[in-house]
Amino acid sequence: MKQLETYLSFIETELNQLDLPSSPKNLYDPIHYFMKIGGKRIRPILTLLAAEYFGETKENALPAAIAVELFHNFSLMHDDIMDVAPIRRGKATIHEKWNTNIAILSGDVLFVKAYQQLAKQSQEQLYDLINLFNKTAIEVCEGQQMDMDFEQQAAVSTEEYIEMIRLKTSVLLGCALQFGAIIAGASKHNQALIYQYGINLGIAFQIQDDLLDLYGEQEQVGKQIGGDIIANKKTLLCILADELADEPNKHRLTEMYAEKDHSTKILLARHIFENLGVYEHCHKQKEIYYLKAMEALETIDYSQNKSLLVSLSDYLFNREY
Amino acid sequence: MKQLETYLSFIETELNQLDLPSSPKNLYDPIHYFMKIGGKRIRPILTLLAAEYFGETKENALPAAIAVELFHNFSLMHDDIMDVAPIRRGKATIHEKWNTNIAILSGDVLFVKAYQQLAKQSQEQLYDLINLFNKTAIEVCEGQQMDMDFEQQAAVSTEEYIEMIRLKTSVLLGCALQFGAIIAGASKHNQALIYQYGINLGIAFQIQDDLLDLYGEQEQVGKQIGGDIIANKKTLLCILADELADEPNKHRLTEMYAEKDHSTKILLARHIFENLGVYEHCHKQKEIYYLKAMEALETIDYSQNKSLLVSLSDYLFNREY
């Protein structure tokens, strides 16, 4: 999306100029490395867009935007350890390239660096920013814990799953947007609405991610089709299948989960899901949250042109299927 | 020390009333458990004493004091993972009792809880408190990284070692004291002096800890005599021995480090250290920093009675040898 490129390069320039020392090398090299791996920088862009939308310059919201991106990367560093993930965005993860201790500690430092960025915003806003940031950070950790707990849990309900992705993914989008609103001096009412926009957009986006695992095109998705199915990951597709299945289909699902051959497993999953209408149910859930997001955006009591925020929503969902 | 008991029970009462949710259980149970293991609560007491010293009530400094203690416990949680420590204060560490992932994540949450406590202080002080806290947190991580790096490093100089313990241990004592001074509205000059008192007290205290490993009485120290020697830990004793040794003693030190029998190893260490005057050199270093601490305290340009802070210094060094 052409319009967003200005924002992206604005963020990248700032990230490249981050004031990070070089020593101790084993603490700061991993941070430099991880921040250079890239990413879509959606979250800091949200902060800039929200600030501009409510009448502030993007320059004045830059530290808070960077804080959000640093926090996001901190949480990825620690999540990668917990998920024993060898690869992140095509590169070796920190615990793989260095070791787990270094991944823990450089993650911790990056977390503090996020607070340092936030503390660059004006003193009058700091109280609101810090309180929202603290609340969000705790919720993200709670979401990650729920996600880990689900692996050991026999049945996960749709409600539990949505709550998990709300915490693990969406609250940070809401926080990023509300940061912009706070910095621009938006009313509490409008702050709450833009936060709700972020929450619902995040949930819709995560559901779309689950859908794309099985129903996306490989080149669009950028990862192996059916990867979640192969790994028996409890995505919304499987959770809905479990909820919708009658006894014969429950039996088929159990067989599918136990299947060792990857291609057979994916074929079985597609077949059972089609019988149960899993795609349609999942797609409907996505639409519900997408519409909630748009509704929150439209309700905002502010006369500015919302086209850029709407474009962003479109951009996030341009991976059509 | 009788006078400090009031402060300790004030802290314990507040820690017992911490507003922690119960779910997700795997996230919050470890925090409840770890905070109940206890500890001397020296750091939060420092905040209260400094606040009172500069004319503020201890009640008004309580959130910042709790923040320091929560941060300290967060750093212990993550350090225990890195040090593969099975026991902390006589109890199983979190990664032992639960697992590493849970120890990482509940540590992260505890870190945010520290920021939440700090944000309870008045908005006017928040900017100074957060900036000092951020700087301190990063330094503590840098100290931990240096400590880990030392394990792989052939030679460590006294200067490097002192810098490591300054970062890993002392800056948090300085921060705890300066928090009290900030909250009481002390001048920048006096804030810097009480910070210096904390820094130097912390270094002296850590050197004493190194000394006690070999020259303390078991019941005073509460842990196995010579534990650091057995583990080949690079404490100031060994660093000074390496620096002071001539060729024959360097050879003896190499033999001592390689010795497998614990009693023989400790005997060898005592013998070599006595030849080199290691005890005296180490004790002298401790005295230098202790006197620097006292000098900073005396230079403070404030008329209040300093007896309680002096008593605290005495208390910290009452493990005479």
Annotate the secondary structure layout.
The structure is a homodimer of 321-residue chains.
Chain A: H1 2-16, H2 25-36, H3 42-53, H4 62-82, E1 87-88, E2 91-92, H5 94-97, H6 100-118, H7 123-152, H8 158-183, H9 188-215, H10 218-221, H11 227-230, H12 236-244, H13 247-258, H14 262-276, H15 278-299, H16 307-316
Antiparallel strand pairs in A: 1-2
Helix pairs in contact in A: 1-3, 2-6, 3-4, 3-8, 4-6, 4-7, 4-8, 7-8, 8-9, 9-15, 12-15, 13-14
Can you summarize this structure?
2 copies of one chain form a homodimer. Chain A has 2 domains: 186 residues, Farnesyl Diphosphate Synthase; 124 residues, Farnesyl Diphosphate Synthase (Orthogonal Bundle), CATH 1.10.600.10.
**Percent range for β-strand residues of chain A:** under 5%
- CATH topology value of the largest domain in chain A: Farnesyl Diphosphate Synthase
| Greatest interface by residues involved | A-B, 35 and 35 residues
For the sheet with most strands of chain A, the description reads: 2 strands, antiparallel
Give the class of chain A from helix and strand content and strand pairing: mainly alpha
Shape of chain A: globular
Low-confidence parts of chain A lasting 5 or more residues at pLDDT below 50? Answer: none
Query: Strands of the largest sheet of chain A, in order across it?
Result: 1-2
Mean of residue pLDDT of chain A?
Answer: 93
Write the CATH architecture name of the largest domain in chain A.
Orthogonal Bundle
The residue fraction in helices of chain A comes out at over 70%
CATH superfamily of the largest domain in chain A: Farnesyl Diphosphate Synthase
- Give the helix tally of chain A: 16
By CATH reckoning, the class of the largest domain in chain A would read Mainly Alpha
Distance between the termini of chain A: 18 Å
Q: Any idea how many domains of chain A?
A: 2
Count the E strands of chain A. Answer: 2
Multimeric organization: homodimer
